Amino acid sequence: MEKASDAKLISATKAGDTAAFGLLIQRHQQAALRVAAVTLGSADGADDVAQEAFVKLFNSIHRFLDGERLEPWLFKIVANTARNRLRTEGRQRSLQVRALAHVGVDHPDPDETAVHLADRRALIGAINRLRLEDRLVLTYRWYEDMSESEIATAMDCRPGTVKSRLSRAMDRLRMEMGEK
Amino acid sequence: MRSLEQRFIQTLEAIELPEVSLVEPVLRELTAPTPIASHKPRRRLVVAAAAASFALLAVLAISPMRAAVADWFGIGATEIIVDPTADLPELSAATAELFGGVVVASPLSPLPQLGSPAAVLDTEPAGSRVYLWAASNGRPALSDTGVGVILSVRTISGPLATKRMTAEVGAAPVDFVSSGNAVTGIWIDGDHAFTPGGSTEPLLAGRVLLWTLGTVQYRLEANLDLAAMTELAGQVQGGTNLLPSG
């Protein structure tokens, strides 16, 4: 059961198997937390949002069509839940990165490490200044490697608009980074 | 030199996320006993006995796309669920997000009797537009919103909306004329939970008249009786021009 595909776990969940749903949560909770944090603009409250989103996912799993990927559906619920929270909070937020993160970075030269960390801080600052829709489309495309139709599902927009949304988001990020 | 995309990915990897496991809290919430006074809508229960009382509504047109779903019932892009355990969401600032979305300028007066709308909003799902008229002597406010009449228009394709109500409120077929066309709509004569298409957040809705004309679905909400509602619906002008362009 632990190596079962998402499709099998979803089928089992539809039949009322909460253990199967627990495995789905385990598999996708990091991604849900990340989308929650990106939408909220900070990690504060991302766990509450993701928890609420998984409960909503369970309650609407009967609508899930066989063969569809779970992520676009899950991310849509996460982002909507986070948006609702933002509307009632209305306070300023900003994403933070780990100060000593070396994920994917191998720089024995301390100067080079410092440059990369400075770039990372600049980039997180630029991401924080982006509009929510821009943060999400870049996250879905670049980080989650979702297709245009999957992004359209997650963002509840027409598939034909995804390319232009992505292009504008990339332009705005470059401008924020002073790279254009 | 790493591309912006690579740097973005690595930066997102480095975001400080809560170090928690969500499995136990989620499963605990799903298996917790349901509080009696809770306003959270329950998981959908299709009640066979109540469904039987809607046999007359079988004459309503069902989009072929939706007909593939075995137990779907409704009109256009709105599913009707009769659920005796249906609870109403609380009216709150979050509920007012029904009036959220993007304010747009529109020269149209879809309901000439009411004059120009006080606000026009493009909302979710994509391709939806909401026209709002303020409350007045002849148009009591919906709860404490200050809004008297809401006319929502959207295409019948796209994510399904849901209306969930008790059998006492119910949903009944009603024949009337809209824009010179004989239509059969659905009349919901009381408070119910409305979940817009693509959303998972139920909102509190009052009396609503639903109907479709061609590919457009109309939703008229107001604190008026059926006669007044069908009279208003009879005047709707604009058709697909009422939808967001593009």
What would the keywords be for this entry?
A: 180 residues, mainly alpha, globular, B: 246 residues, alpha+beta, 5-stranded mixed beta sheet
SSE sequence of chain A, one letter per element: HHHHHHHH
Poorly predicted ranges of chain A:
100-105
Q: How many H/I helical runs of chain B?
A: 5
- Our estimate of the beta-strand percent of chain A is under 5%
Oligomeric state of this protein: heterodimer
Instruction: Please state the structural category of chain B.
Output: alpha+beta
Strand order within the widest beta sheet of chain B: 3-4-5-6-13-12-9-8
Number of strands of chain B: 13
Average pLDDT reading of chain A: 86
What is the tally of beta strands of chain A?
0
Mean pLDDT of chain B: 72
Radius of gyration of chain A: 18 Å
Q: Mind describing the biggest β-sheet of chain A?
A: none
Q: Please compute the radius of gyration of chain B using only Cα atoms.
A: 20 Å
The largest inter-chain interface, given as chain pair and residues per side, is:
A-B, 57 and 41 residues
| Percent helix of chain B | 10-25%
Q: Which overall shape of chain A is indicated by the principal axes computed on the Cα atoms?
A: globular
